[in-house]
Amino acid sequence: MTYIRSEIIGHGHYTPKKVLTNDDMAKIVDTNDEWITTRTGIKARCVVETEVNSDLSYKAAMMAIKNANISAEDIDLVVLATVTPDYTTPATAIKVANMLGVKSGTPAFDLSAACSGFVYALTMADNMVRLGQIKTALVIGAETLSKITDWTDRNTCVLFGDGAGAVVIRACEGKGDATDTGILASKIYSDGAHFDNLRTTGGVSVSQNAGFVMMDGKEVFKYAIGALAQGAEEAMKIAGITAEDIDFLLPHQANIRIIEGVGKKLELPEEKVIVNIAGHGNTSAASIPLALSEKMEDSTIKKGDLVVLTSMGAGFTWGGIVVRI
Ligand code: ACO
Q1: Would the CA dihedral through 317, 52, 169, 296 be positive or negative?
Q2: How many C-alpha atoms does 325 have within 13 Å on its Cβ side?
Q3: Per-residue pLDDT for 1 more than 80?
Q4: Of 72, 115, 131, 264, whose CB neighbour count within 10 A is largest?
Q5: Residue 213 CA: which ligand 1 atom is closest?
Q6: Best of 216, 255, 257, 288 for a ligand 1 pocket test (most atoms within 8 Å of beta carbon)
Q7: Cis bond leading into 316, ω under 30°?
Q8: Would you call 13 a catalytic residue per the annotation?
Q9: Any catalytic annotation for residue 252?
Q10: 40: CA distance to ligand 1 center in Å?
Q11: pTM of the predicted model, to two decimals?
């Protein structure tokens, strides 16, 4: 019996040209390179000047479409994971679809699950592919977090960056086991008991503005390693594999100490854990597709590799995906 899977056939990413190093941050708030590097692993982050979310999304998506060797007209669904859309409404995904030349009538929507946004979005798109509702989907994670950053708060402003990543997935046939190509399993979670540990200070309905990111860093830190490990472990269990089978773990890039903690919890050697936080900081929903695309582009991640994506973010939300490239 054949089994429908979603295969990643294209990847893309884009970051704004303006880079703020830790030394630049030290001119904005009372901080220094040593503190930021040792506590977070971040050395620099990209921030937008005149560009908006749809610009970043468009550029990452264009690269993914070219890389997939398809035309925008082949796309049956556009999902954009973000907490920093261009406008409150309509969805930025719809604007991006139009910019790309996606055919009229194609469903497009934004998805809000904070740093887990891309894992949620890829799960939704994969489910639609496997149900036979669509063949080809463009899944984007894009953020302009610099627009919801309080640039006077050293506790948060050093952590975040702007950027976008995208993948094109397409239906393919498999056998239904872990040797298949494509998404083998996914598992997503949320728990609103932690709503106030990491959120914005306001929002449309509450304050008629977007607010700024605020968080209880210690609470987030405590929860993150367990949640990231759970997302990975449960997705691996569904796929019928163990950590020993995987080529790479790609965790959400929040903090090097969290990333290393998850790697240790899953007993993975350092070289199997993807890290790109030094140059980007935490780009929320963009973090996983940005790292995935960078590492596929430089051939660190190759065709046939078994990769586990795992994320955790505001909500809290978390989840994992097992994918054979
Ligand atoms: N530069 C210099 N000093 C700073 C800075 C800064 N940028 N920020 C805070 N400090 C100070 C604090 O004021 C405090 O000083 P005090 O002792 O005089 O009061 C001191 O550094 C220690 O602060 P802590 O909060 O104890 O530092 P900690 O080791 O917990 O690290 C951090 C803080 C990096 C935020 C950590 O808690 C963390 O990584 N939490 C996870 C949060 C995270 O990654 N959030 C991202 C979004 S969530 C997600 O993506 C999963």
Answers
A1: negative
A2: 25
A3: no
A4: 115
A5: 47
A6: 255
A7: yes
A8: no
A9: yes
A10: 8
A11: 0.97
